[in-house]
Amino acid sequence: MSAPSEVPKVNKAVSNGYGPPAEPFPLPDNADILTQNAIKYMSFAGDPRTRFIFQNLTRHLHQFVKETDITTEEWMTAIQFLTATGQKCTSLRQEFILLSDVFGVSALVDAINNPNVGSATESSVLGPFFTEDANDVPFGESIASEGKGEYMLVQGRILNTAGEPIPDATIETWETDDLGFYDTQYTDRQGPDCRGRLKSDAEGRYQYRAVVPVSYPIPGDGPVGTLLELVHRHNNRPSHLHMMVEKKGYHKLVTALYPEGDPYLTSDTVYGVKKSLVVKLTKIESDEEARKHGFKKGPFTLLTHDYVLLTDDEAREARKKVTEANLLKEAEFQKLIS
C-alpha cells in the first residue's frame, strides 16, 4: 500500500495591515458616490502633499471617465497601451518619458519647477536619451568621434545673474549624429558618443567640438509612435543640443539650444522649444581657423552661447511663489470635496 502523498504547504494571503475606515462608506449606488468614496480613501494619507496629489488625481481621472463616457473596451485598450509602454522600456530606452513628452506633461512639469527669472537661462525638457556614462572631455576637445556629422565648435561662458563667471561648473552635453540617432539607439553601441562631460575654466568659459545637430523623429516603433499615428501627429523634433549645467550653490540647469530656421521649431513634438533658446549658427570657412580648433579642415559651424545660472536661494524664492499659488488651489480643492 503506497504512502499518502503530502499536501503541498500553501502560505495564507497576507493583508497589508490596514483595517476598514472607522466610519463605513456609503455603498455606491451611483457613479458620484463611487467617486466620493475613492477620493475619501486617498484622504487617509498622512502626508498633506501626498493626500492632495492623489485626491486630485482621483478626482480628475474619474471626471475624465465621466466626460468621455468611455467604454469598457476603450478603457481596456488604454490599459493594454500602458502595459505595452512599460514593456518597451529598457535600461537605455524610457518609453514612459517619451509618453510624458508627447503629451506636453514633461514640458509643463519643467516649466512649473523652473520658473523664468530675469536673465537666467530658461530650462527645457531632459528627454529620454540622457545617460550617466559620458566621457570627461578636456577644454576644446570633441564629444563626437570622426565622421558623425558636420564639424561644430561650441563655446561660451557660465555666469551668475550678476554677470560674474562661475568656474569649475560641470557641463553635460549630448546630441544625435547627422543621421538623427543618439548613440543609445544603436544596437552595437560600444560606449558613449556625441556626448561628453566637461568643466568651465577659471573665467567661466567652456569650449568643445561637436557636430551640427539635425532634426530627427523620436522612436516610432513603440506605443508612443502608434499613438502619434492614431492622432495624425508628426513625430519630429527640431535640431538641438542638450546641456546640463551644475555647480554647488546653484540651481541645476537642464536645457537645450535650438538652431534657428529648423522647420519643426514651432511644432516640436515634445514641446521643448522656447524663444530664448533659439540660437544663430555661424559658418566659418577658414581651414586655418578649423585646424586651430582641432578640426582636420574647414568649414565648420560656430555656436556661441552663455548660460546664466540661478543660485539655490534665487531658485527657491521663485519656486516659493509657485508653491504659494498652489496652496491656494489646494485650499479651494479641500472646500470642494468637504
Automatic annotation (TrEMBL):
Keyword entries, A-Z: Dioxygenase, Iron, Metal-binding, Oxidoreductase
Domain Catechol dioxygenase N-terminal per the UniProt entry, residue ranges: 47-118
Residues forming coiled coils: none
Domain of life of the native organism: Eukaryota
Pfam families, alphabetized: Dioxygenase_C, Dioxygenase_N
A GO term for molecular function: ferric iron binding
Biological process terms in GO annotation: catechol-containing compound metabolic process
Cofactor requirement: Fe(3+)
All residue ranges annotated as the Intradiol ring-cleavage dioxygenases domain in the record: 145-289
Region described as Disordered: spans on this chain: 1-21
Similarity section: Belongs to the intradiol ring-cleavage dioxygenase family.
Protein name in UniProt: Aromatic compound dioxygenase
Source taxonomy: Eukaryota, Fungi, Dikarya, Basidiomycota, Agaricomycotina
